Automatic annotation (TrEMBL):
<protein>
    <recommendedName>
        <fullName>Glyoxalase</fullName>
    </recommendedName>
</protein>
<dbReference type="InterPro" id="IPR029068">
    <property type="entry name" value="Glyas_Bleomycin-R_OHBP_Dase"/>
</dbReference>
């Protein structure tokens, strides 16, 4: 599972739906999970995810770039950059 912490679950869910992802589960504005094959993509409210993993600051400082086997590049509402991995 790839779980992304996002500021607005509903807006991010809509974004991924517009990019072809099908929602498998959704719990209002706190969590959304997509039918994405062997690796499940899920969205969780950033502050809630930070609390779950024991972080006091939900802003994060890690990478916001994901490389996948796909065509093109796009950036989601939370600044996660999806780019095509070298094949």
């Amino acid at each position: 599972m790839l779980l992304l912490g996002v500021a607005d679950v509903k807006a991010s869910r809509k974004f991924y739906e517009q990019h072809g992802a099908s929602v498998a589960k959704s719990f209002g504005g706190t969590y959304a999970e997509f039918s994405t094959g062997p690796v499940t993509l899920a969205l969780y409210k950033r502050a809630g995810l930070a609390k779950q993993v024991g972080l006091s600051d939900a802003t994060g400082s890690g990478s916001h770039r994901l490389a996948v086997h796909a065509d093109g590049e796009f950036t989601d509402p939370d600044g996660y950059i999806w780019s095509a991995a070298a094949r």
